[in-house]
Amino acid sequence: MRDRIEVAKLDGSQRRVLFDDDLVNPRAIITDSANGHLYWTDWNREAPKIETSYMDGTNRRILVKDDLGLPNGLTYDSHSSQLCWADAGMLVQPWWRGGA
């Protein structure tokens, strides 16, 4: 089975795939529903990354790809507009989203 990110209603209806390409081992996934953003980590040992898109799957882009080990936890602080992640073997890292 391919790794993928899907969405659905809470009752399981209207299920659909948002992403099923360029994913190796997606780990953490969070939403910033106030701004309509989705964030996730890809625990790819060859090319780890943190990505984002709109919650409908459009505007997919890589946010962080340098200086990552195995990013496996995410949280978003709406008060400071910071995306923070846990990286296996490293400290929690903040990333300033600013006007993104």
From TrEMBL:
GO terms for molecular function: Wnt receptor activity; Wnt-protein binding. LDL-receptor class B repeats lie at residues 36-80. SUPFAM superfamilies: YWTD domain. It comes from the Eukaryota. GO terms for biological process: canonical Wnt signaling pathway. GO terms for cellular component: plasma membrane. This is Nidogen-1.
